[in-house]
Amino acid sequence: MLRNVISFLYMFIAIVAYSVDFSNVTDIAGVGCTGLSFGVAWGDYDNDGDLDLYVANYNEANVLYRNNGDGTFTDVTDEAGVSCRGHSRGVAWGDYDNDGDLDLYVANDGANVLYRNNGDGTFTDVTSEAGVSCTGSSCGVAWGDYDNDGDLDLYVANFYEANVLYRNNGDGTFADVTSEAGVGYTGYSRGVAWGDYDNDGDLDLYVANYEANVLYRNNGDDTFTDVTDEAGVGYTGSSWGVAWGDYDNDGDLDLYVANYEANVLYRNNGDGTFTDVTGQAGVGCTGNSRGVAWGDYDNDGDLDLYVANYYGANVLYRNNGDGTFTMVGAGVGCTGNSRGVAWGDYDNDGDLDLYVANDEANVLYRNNGNLNHWLQIRLHGTISNRSAIGTKVKVIAH
User: Fold this and answer.
1) Is the dihedral of CA 188, 157, 318, 276 positive or negative?
2) d(CA 178, CA 237)
3) Which residue among 154, 273, 377, 382 sits deepest, i.e. has the most Cβ atoms within 10 Å of its Cβ?
4) Percent of the chain with pLDDT over 90
């Protein structure tokens, strides 16, 4: 009898833990931007311990929302000086000058912009002096210390022109090292993500393109090699978004690609190759997907997946822990022609909330919580870049 009771309790706890839902708190929080939004990024730019939010818009000025710490946000765009009215598509936070506060890079249809954080709630446009204007039709951007010298470098994915890799010189300026590094793809790029897929200690690069995608392996000598074919990740379905994440907890990074056609999940085999496991995993969304983000929303120890679709409802896939996923409702099936998405615990309650950037009004979904435990870690680079981008944290629970 006691065994049956214990089994019932375990089952009840599991059911409650999985019965996670979200509430649309956009109006309450005051973050319902309506400017044909493309990109979104969480980051604590004012170092007050809670996540702030930047939204990149194409038709209107971009918006910086400062987190008030009480569940609401304040639009501080003008006073911070980061409106950037340049038809923006992508955005990324990163402390490029290692001074302890997050700087901001915005990818535009036109000249891009680098905003240096002044540490007093304001930013300065340092694009020209830093040498990172990149005046193409930029879509994606990602910070990463590819040469392991302790400061953040920058990769920009362009739709019409060749992509650009900027190496951080460590003095506030950058050098265009695209050609010598061998990463100047010109196939109508949209998305980009750094990730050490081969666990050799340096960041590799995946670029999502209108034509065939590309995986660049970091050679460790400031150059890269195109290993797309041998790795088996050269999807050609008009890709938009890409995200690395170890969904099967085997210690290496897997890859999800959001496409105009069916999406693809590549499982890392641990030997430099990948296997397309989309069908068996059950994550082959076909809704003209644009954005994708990994995040353990139910705190059960494995990564779940959110896919933002341009036509039709967005999709949340719960990781079942056995290599498969289940599509769940959870109240986050936004249908506003979505493009960008980002997880972040904006209310510091231990679970991941979700912001979705749309053609129509954007949406903030508050996670209503679960019974599982959580751990919050704030990384501070000393030898590595100050933002600790690229760091791997291994946690073992007993």
Assistant:
1) positive
2) 25
3) 154
4) 79
Distance separating alpha carbons of residues 66 and 64, to the nearest angstrom = 6
CA distance 159 to 296: 31
d(Cα 169, Cα 147) in Å, to the nearest integer? 11
Q: Indicate whether 124 pLDDT > 90.
A: yes
Q: In 103-194, which residue ranges form alpha helices assigned H by DSSP?
A: 127-130, 178-181
Query: Residue 369 above 90 pLDDT?
Result: no
Name the amino acid, one letter, at 56. Answer: A
Distances (CA, A) of 58 to 39, 91, 120, 215, 292: 9, 12, 27, 28, 19
According to the model, what pLDDT value does residue 2 have?
A: 34
Contact 331, 365 (CB under 8 A): yes
Eight-state DSSP code of residue 179: H
pLDDT at 16: 40
Q: Which residues contact 255 (CB under 8 A, 6 or more apart)?
A: 195, 197, 206, 233, 242, 243, 244, 265, 266, 268, 274
Burial track 31-61 (b if 16+ CB lie within 10 A, e otherwise): bebebbbbbbbbbbbbeeebbbbbbbbbebb
Q: What is the pLDDT of residues 174-220, one digit of tens each?
A: 999 999 999 998 879 999 999 999 999 999 999 999 999 999 999 99
- For residue 7, the surrounding DSSP H or E stretch is helix 2-18
Q: Which amino acid is at 115?
A: Y
